[in-house]
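Submission sheet (multi-component)
Chains listed below:
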Amino acid sequence: MSDEIPEIPQDVLDLIGKPLYQEETEFDIEMGYVYNTLAAVQNGNPLYWDKSVAQELVGAQIAPPTMLSVWFRPHYWTPGFEGERTALQSHFDMKRMMDLPEAIISGNENIFGVPVKIGDKLRTHQVIKSISDVKKTRVGTGRFWVINVESVNQDGEHVGTDIYTCLGYRRPEQ
Amino acid sequence: MSVADIKSLTADEVAVGDELPPLLIPVSATTVVLGALASRDWRPMHHDRDFAINRNGVKDIFINTPNNAAWFERYITDWTGPKGRLGRMKFKMSSSVFPGDEMAMSGRVEKITIDDTGCCWLDLSVAVSIDGDVSTSCQTRVAIPKDDKDNPWSRKADQWQP
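Outcome: structure written.
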């Protein structure tokens, strides 16, 4: 089966290490989504619920660090846009360009930097860090790739990195 | 409310091998949908049961990864108090969490270090289990104060090395 997985195309190799999909958040960081997240997991941390505690500890109201990826997900719909809007677009590019019809996120690591404050505008870009040799896994045969999503605030301070390990593959019958 | 009124864990109160208090969370369809929408994850397998069953081949809608992270964060900072500041999280998802499941959250202190800047780091292993089987495991690093005067949130630039 592994013989059927083609070599990595040169245009894919050319993307490794380059900043891709440089974007800004579609709205300023806001407290409404923070409250929704806190409510969804019944998180009573006074750092987020009590402005005076936030002011004393951090000097500003902030969002929970694990919300970092939330700020970069596109709206479900915007005027004039047709088709599906997806986060982590470079992952879908890898699937398409290497003709690997199935894909899963097999691992995820988050590194948290400067706290994200209410009112911040964040910028992000994606970097394809590596692509593996052909691997045979229990779900099928394909390649792993690693994508780093780097995010900074309006002052250029690093607010976090999301590291995704992805597997693109063909099922045995494909 | 003042920070002085709120309990936060300090380094002298933790030892390697300490267990975090267990937490049980009954999961409903509302739990799943609330978490997905709060994290702006509009994909149908997190709110559309027919799609989850017929397209994904699973038994129901299931909790999405960012919401999983939010549950871990809540679990950890319930224990550390508000001065606990997450530095890193690494996930391994083994199986999905569905309505009707009960998430059993557990955790253990694996390592305690003080870095070059004087920041106290705890390396934790935390997990969500369903019926005794680990569904998601997570290795995480959280900074806690060395003493009552310390505040990990005040660390900036090269004083913060997660």
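Remark: The interface with chain A takes residues 1-3, 6, 31, 34-35, 37-42, 65-67, 69-74, 77-78, 82-83, 85-92, 151, 153-154, 156, 160, 162 of chain B (CB under 8 Å).
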